[in-house]
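Morning!

This is the sequence you dropped in the shared folder:
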Amino acid sequence: MIFAVTCVSNDTIYCGKIIKSFNTIGTLLSSVILFKEPLLVNVTVEQDCMLGEIDCVEDVNLIGNARPGSMVLLTDEKGVERYYQQPLAKQFYKNLPEYDDVDIKVRFPIRSNYWFQGDPLPTNNSTQNLDFLQLALREIVRALGFQSSWEMWFKDKTIIVPRPLCDDGKGECSIKGRRVHKKWIGFREYIFDKYLMNLYTGEMLTDKTEELNKFFETKNIKGRIRNLEKEFKTSTQYNIAKEMYGLSTTNNTIGFFSWNDIDYKDILVLLTNISPFNDDINLKFVDDILYYNTSDFLMRYRLPYGEILQNEIINGGNYDNSTNSTDSILYGSIGPKLMRVLETIGYATIDKPIVDYKPTIPPPRPPFAESNSLGNSLYSLSSITFYQICLLLITVVYEIYLLKL
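The structure's back. Tokens below.
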């Protein structure tokens, strides 16, 4: 992993600690994941000033995040399309048109309460210290592919669905974009979602997505996403989306079923006890309580203020999955269940160096069918800007004025 770090601060010591932390993360992840292609990670650490001022009040609730440079649709062995995060897709295909110049984009605010490796150990009363290495590592793992597509994509906040997919004939279709000349063709999971299980029934949630996509078999919905939502709310599939909302806000209901799990106790249980549903939390982390003081502590949502990464590893059983003896205590950050998740979605690791399958590139979609002449006229009319309408009216009024002279 190659980190390009921009630290916007006059404190060179602080910025040096930031850079060292990301170098440690690169070494740590590369010791357990066998990256076939190097990943470029763009990191920005700066004050988060809403108005662009140089000095602003520190927002203690602002954590920061990492996200993939792009999401790429690939097809599995059954012909099902799913989104892959760019870092993961790059392990299968070195170059694709959808790729961004950067594989992972990271942004963190400058905070005074970060604890860095090498700092004096936090005291018992320093409950506000936050181990930056642990935070940044967790976020980068999420960008690698630990992420679900089940979210509240519609204005209706009582349902969740996988990511809606539209087609505008140009391959640039935006879900929230104002462009009306597009067709809605389905819901698409992230690869992570393929392995999610209902722990009550044993049903794989990807079966729910298959049922949801039957909605599009008899529908020809075009235009903005609100048109899709309007039609969807009258369908039988709407109840599935409601059921998924309830499941995703009930404790211990959904888990990740990895490639070699043979029992329910092997499944990684996701965080589903937050209600109302939060797109940034539910299904994006592991259960906070179940994985407290375990070797799979890293992907918990609640940050361990006042605790450092080394202690988390020791309290979790001192797990070590690396043959690298240098600073080996840190290599226990990637627990056994998290390792299996990474292997299952497609990464080669030191425990499982051979990836069982390679997703394929989906064939090009058929040319986007233009609507009838009336539809084209309406579309053209909707494309006229307010400025153009005003200009047209001014011209007409002026012509009438000239006729009266």
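Headline: The first strand starts at residue 2 and ends at 7.

More detail when I'm at my desk.
O.
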